[in-house]
Amino acid sequence: MFKPKSDFLRETIARGFFHQATDLESLDAQMSKNGVIAYLGFDATAKSLHVGNLVQIMRLRLLQRTGHKPIVLMGGGTTRVGDPSGKDEMRKVLSEEEITANLDSMEKIFARYLTFGQGATDALMVNNALWLNDLNYLDFLRDYGRHFSINRMMTFDSIRLRLEREQPLSFLEFNYMILQAYDFLELRKRYDVTLQLGGADQWGNIVSGVDLIRRVQRSESFGLTSPLITTASGAKMGKTAQGAVWLNELQLSTFDFWQFWRNTHDADVGKFLRMFTDLPLTEIAKLEELQGQELNEAKKILADEATRLCHGEEAVSEARKTSTTLFDAQHTGSLTEVSLPTLDIEREQVKAGISLVDLFRSTGLVPSNGEARRLIRGQGARLNDEPVTDENYKVTLREFEETTCLKLSAGRKRHALVKLRD
C-alpha cells in the first residue's frame, strides 16, 4: 500500500481528495523534497462559484498550507469554447462582457481561501486569455495539433460518453481538450508549473497536457484528480432542490449557506469535515464518533468552519444568532426579530390580496413565478410553517391579524420574512 512522504499527498489521501494520479510515487518524491507549483482551472460560466467547486478550492488551500505554490487559472479564453466534460449538451455561449463580469465576481471568492502575493508559496491568479485570445489558428495546428491523436481523444470520457449517448458534440467543444493541454504547457513555460489538479471528469484533459509537455519540452509533469463528490443520498455535491449553493453572498445569504452545512446528512458529516474545513484529522475523528443529538453539535461545527472560511467570523456569529432566534420564534410565534431576508409590503397591497407566488419570487426564495408554482406543486412551500398547495393562494390582512410578520419557507432550508409596514 502506497504511503506518501509529502504532507500534501498524505493529507490529500486522508481527507478524501485523491482519485487518480499520472505518477504518484514520482510526484510524492518531488513534493517531499521541494515546493511544487501547481494549478487548477476555473471557467467563468457564472458570477459565482458554488459548493460543487469548493472541493477544488480546498485542494488549492491544502497545497498552500503544506508549503507549495498554487496558481488559479481563470478561463477567460476557454470559457469562450466550453468544456464538454460531464455535460450533456453544449454550454451557453457568453459574450465578452459577461465573461469579464463573471471573472471579476469570482476573483473575490478565491481571496477568502488563498493568500495572494509574490512570496514563494503565495498564490497567483492568471487568465488564459493572455495566450489563447491571440493564437494564430494555422500556426497552432501546425505546431501542436500533430501531437494529439484523435483515436486516443475518442477514448476519454469527456468525448466518449457524449458520443455513446448520441448527444451532439460540436467541433468547438472537441477543441477544448487541446486548449486545456496547451494551457498546461504555457504555464510550464511561464511559471514552471509541474502539476495540474482537477476533478475526475478532467482526467483526459489533464493527461493530454502531461503528454504535450513531454512531447514538446521532453520534461516531466504530473496530473492529480479528485473523485466526484456526492452526498449520502447520491445527489451531486452542492445541488439542492432550490438550486446551487453559491459561494457569493449576493446570490445566497450567509445564513442559508450556514444552514446548508447544518442540515448535512448524518452519514456525510465526517466526510465534509475532512474536505471542507481545516480542522485537524484527529479532532474530526472524535467528532465522527458522536451519535444521536450529539451529532448535531458536529454539524454546527461543520457549518461554523465552512462559513468562517467563505464569509468570515461575523457571518458565523450572525448565522448562529439567527438560527437560535428562528428556533425560539417558531416556538413562541414571534418572528419580528429574526435576521432573515425581509420583504416589506404596504397595507394597501394586502387589502385586495397579494399572490403567494409573487411573494416567493419577491423575497428571492425562487428566481421566477414559474419556480414558485413548481415549489408549491411539489409541496415544498410553507407559510408560517404550514404547507400551501394552492398555486392561486393570496395573502390578505387576515394573516396579519395577530402579527406584523409572516415567514415563508422554500423546503426546510430556505426562509424569508414578509413584514407589514405600519
From TrEMBL:
Residue positions of motif 'KMSKS' region: 236-240
Q: Which GO terms describe its cellular component?
A: cytosol
Chief location: cytoplasm
Q: Give me the residues that bind ATP, please.
A: K239
User: In which compartments does the protein localize?
Assistant: Cytoplasm
Pfam families documented for this protein: tRNA-synt_1b
The Gene Ontology biological process annotation of the record reads:
tyrosyl-tRNA aminoacylation
Q: Which PROSITE patterns match?
A: S4
Tagged with keyword ATP-binding: yes
Q: Name one GO molecular function term.
A: RNA binding
Give start-end ranges for motif 'HIGH' region: 44-53
Q: Which UniProt keywords apply?
A: Aminoacyl-tRNA synthetase, ATP-binding, Cytoplasm, Ligase, Nucleotide-binding, Protein biosynthesis, RNA-binding
Coiled-coil ranges per UniProt: none
Similarity section: Belongs to the class-I aminoacyl-tRNA synthetase family. TyrS type 1 subfamily.
State the protein's name.
Answer: Tyrosine--tRNA ligase
Q: Which organism is it from?
A: Caedimonas varicaedens
